[in-house]
Amino acid sequence: xxxxxxxxxxxxxGPGGPAGRKGGAVRAARRAGDSVxxxxxxxxxxxxxxxxxxxxxxxxxxxxxxxIMLVLRQSAVLGVIGFGMAxxxxxxxxxxxxxxxxxxxxxxxxxxxxxxxxxxxxxxxxLGMGIxxxxxxxxxxxxxKMPPFIVTLATMLIFRSLALYISHSxxxxxxxxxxxxxxxxxxxGNSPLATVPVVGLMFLVVAxxxxxxxxxxxxxxxxxxxxxxxxAARLAGINTEWLKVSLFVICGLLxxxxxxINVAMNRSVSPANTGISxxxxxxxxxxxxxxxxxxxxxxxxxxxxxxxxxTMVSRIIDAxxxxxxxxxxxxxxxxxxxxxxxxxxxxxxx
Length: 350
Description:
With 350 residues, the chain is mostly helical. It has 14 helices and 4 strands.
């Protein structure tokens, strides 16, 4: 090694010199920062959930296990819808009809149950109607290639209007004189199993199935591929049109199942008020759960945390005894903050 090289190494910018040591420290700091941003990017929904949960504990008086399970129970309907909406959003589409679909299918489910006194018939009816609604949306979006925002905005209006017309603007209500009413409403809709609400367990089962589908099957990989790069997905041989149709069908199926849960829990359905803003609430839970609105990114398991976080926000608002008129203002601000956090994560990777 020449004298000049030794001088560069020990006094200049070589790896052993002051400048070199400084550069190494900078690189180490950058790696540490990248690790933190990487964790935040992948698991931000856990951090958000913990922060909201701590706030919930602080504002709740004498919080018990039953209180926590109540949050799970209250998250069931919205969470099941959220998983359906998330599948559509993962490919860059959206379904604004889920709230109106919930009220229409719930109302028709009540009618089927009252006519048959059969819980299984009511379940089949709700799932079948959900599939039909999802297929209608999916064919228009995937095959006819109409904009999903416009299509589902139209069906949102159609479904709500049909629910009002069929009921003549009156409540749909389960007939409490039927022999299976107690098992349906109290046994399934409002009872725990080993201290965990049955409807909450249904939510977790749906979460497990959808998470497995998205992470461990070829179908799930195709969903992320389409959401990440539609052109590359087509070149790879993925039938993107029918994949979109199938996702809208699954979304409709889950809205149907959520309708069945909703009827079991509440026994009555108001065509004017049930499901109002549920499409926005589902999106909020999805965003809080870390799913990117641009498609192709996010862990669907985060929707459990996101939906429960959103439910706890409602409980926190109630604890502060704020006016009900301000409720959606707070939720809207939280949704904007969640979107802002997604933008920060996106820019940090660029």
